[in-house]
Amino acid sequence: MTNLKAVEGLDTLTRSLAQRTPEQLAALLTRHAEPLARRPAPTRLRGLASALWSYETLHHLVLHLDHPRLQVLAATARISQDRAGREAPAPAAGADYQSLMAHRLSFPQLATEPVPPEDVHAALGATAPGPARTAAESALDSLYEDGLAAPAEDGGIVVPPRTPQLLAAHDLGPFVPHAPQPTPDATASPARPGLPATTLAPTSPYDESRAAVAPLAATVERLLASLATRPAALRKSGGLAIREIKRLAKAAGTTEPHTRLLLDLTLAADLIALTRTPAGVTALPTDAYDDWLTRPPGERLAPVLAAWSALWAVPTHTPFGETPTALVRGHDRHAPALRYALLAALAAVPLGAGTPLPPTAAADEQGALPELLRTAAWHRPLALGGQPMAEDRAAHTLHEAAYLGLTAHGTLTPLGHALLADPHSLGEPLRALLPPPLERAHFQADLTAVVAGRPAAALAELLASSADRESEGHAVTWRFTPASVRRALDTGRTADTLLDDLTAASATGTLPQPLDYLVRDTARTHGRMRVLPAACCIRSEDEALIGELAAHRALRDLGLRAIAPTVLVSGRPPATTLEALRAAGYAPTLESDTGTTTVERLPAHRTKAATPSRDPGAPLTLAKRLLGHAPEDQEDLQSSRA
């Protein structure tokens, strides 16, 4: 049975959408991009109206309503439902069971009647001019703007018919026009009651944010580089095995919880993707990773932080009894709203009045976290009210925010304020936090190279190919060794080309004499022997060296046999033979069957992104197309009502 009143409500919303400019409608499509993407793209305004007021979309949208908007929506729906129930014609005497059920499902349970704004203000106790009335009017305007309510021709308010079913289980309490402020007790130290929790921090939130994002950019780069070299295999049941997380955490130089966080963020940012191979599902970088490497550090972090704001999971939080993992599709639809609520609550905390991070276990009921959650619940009531493990999830969310440089000293950093305002406009604040990368290094006589800041991609690649990274932080240090120089020579460089590249990267334009000697001495012995891929042979013009290898006790497992004064035959494959010779202190090179030296390179794995990049202009294009069909929609609506 179709409820004609509900159809009229969609007509009202459709007319309201038709009165918008293309830019206004595109803004609405952008704000609701995530829930609308789960449905077929609308071809008419009526289809968009139906999508906005569908139960599934509403369930997503109301999670992101603050207390005033939710109260206005709930009060309007309740009054509309009551009116619909009173005005619905009672079933005829002796009606059958189906008629009785149709009456119950079609009328009393739906909000189908327009409601005068004055009735809503009265229900909220906001009839007199003042803060409550102003907050209610602003909330109603916001609901109109987001398409969660529509103005009727007589000035009444029309809301989605199924709103009462969605909000019936939630107790929203009295109407509170403004977010509650922390009470004086909340600033007391948990360890020493009655005393201030903190004094003015010695460093500013800006400095703390810079100190967090600088190593974060390097950590993300190392994590993706490790995946590019060796893709991570997922378990058959889904998610990464603990051993893979440990391996990637070691390669990235961070903790396992932070590794899980960064893996999920880079997956959401389309920098890595899951691909199926004959051996199973693996995680490896996408084609976008190569373009990402060419960008400045600030632009690299922007999509990663933006992905955090919309992630349907709290990656560092593992419920009791579950195994920590990563790269599993998130199902926590409350997580984005929880993040926003916590950041919004911290935004009003002045520097020096904040509290330390809560423990990542169940928070103390007497501590500051419940007080923060009380303020956060005003910003997103449905994201916190009645949710399981709310305090534990909130504590982990706050720790993630601090790790990402969004919070410090119990308040938001400038980067946190930027994320709260617009997650997709982080380029400018990140450029301020991360200065341009350095293209020169300081080479020292102790065979180290120091970069006093963030190295450029080309410099980092040069140093990583010829030296071993020793330290991280504000200054990055690499150390040159015979093995590291041999690694550079294995990639096809000669002593002269390597020294020329290092000299060009020197801040002083010269290299220390010990480094010059090291490169030339290593190059002098490099390639004196060559490993042939003939299962396999070792040849060298140095007959004494061939005799030395044949008699070397550490190489007995290779089964070396001399077949000529300058040739040995190995019983092991070329790769195993190369590894054994290098482990014994020699510096062989690999030679092809044509007699040319084979250049060894690290493997670089790539895959396609799971989802194509969104066109920034798509919402405006769709808005123009929908508004272009608006007159036809109106004719269709009139014919359907007739």
UniProtKB/TrEMBL annotation:
GO terms for molecular function: helicase activity. InterPro entries: XPB/Ssl2_N. The keyword Nucleotide-binding applies. Residues 444-564 form the Helicase XPB/Ssl2 N-terminal domain. It comes from the Bacteria. Residues 176-206, 589-642 are annotated as: Disordered. The keyword Cell division does not apply. Keywords: ATP-binding, Helicase, Hydrolase, Nucleotide-binding. This is Helicase-associated domain-containing protein.
